Amino acid sequence: DNVQYLLDRARWDVHAVRDVLRQYVVEQLGATDAVLIVDETGFVKKGEHSVGVQRQYSGTAGRIENSQVGVFLCYAGEKGSAFIDRELYLPKAWTEEPARCAAAGVPETVKFATKPQLARQMLERALEAGVPCGWVTGDEVYGGDRRLRLWLESRKQPFVMAVAKNEPLWWQGPTYVRAQRIAQSVPARAWQRLSAGAGAKGER
Fold it and tell me: Which CATH number fits domain 2-163: 2.60.40.3880, 3.90.350.10, 3.40.50.2000, 3.30.465.10?
């Protein structure tokens, strides 16, 4: 019981610190046109005992590596940017082994959640806390999750997310059309190519 109490108290303290940090960031950087950014990053690891570690794609390494993956929520505006929330991705290889989770100190209440589901949890916490936000953005990992997009739409929350070219989207009414076809229907003069920074294979 004492061990569980300490684990619960530590978890509460972490959440309290997160909420205080979020409030501080909003006080310093808050703006109605700010952006909430969801993205994940990998942490290369040795061995198999770090919580959530397995061989999986790591953006940090640019390849499949033995690593942990964390999903992060960043707040960005004209005054600057800062991370305001995070969740550790726990693969099914972990959640389907209760003994392994218990040995690593993972609470029994923690269940498997996809990266988009983790993103929604963090976005919901931020939006419910009144974090001012003009729009939400994320890459294809999140834009490709229809349930996340529908949830944002149900909140009337503007968002800009990457999707695969074959992603079916509603267009000009309740008709599904591939994203590539929609993009091709836009005149060439409407497009402007910008760099998102240097990547492992050149400009992104």
Answer: 3.90.350.10
CATH 3.90.350.10 placement within the chain? 2-163
Q: Which residue has the tokens 């390494």?
A: 61
Which residue has 């806390």 as its token pair?
A: 129
HSE of 41, CA atoms in CB hemisphere, 13 A: 8
> Helices 146-154 & 115-128, crossing angle to 10 degrees?
10
Give the span between the Cα atoms of 69 and 53, in whole angstroms. 8
Interstrand relation of 176-178 and 202-203 (parallel, antiparallel or unpaired):
unpaired
Average pLDDT of each block of 10 consecutive residues along the chain (204 residues)?
53 78 94 97 90 88 90 96 96 92 90 97 97 96 97 97 95 91 93 88 89
CB 64 within 8 A of CB 56: yes
CB 53 within 8 A of CB 47: yes
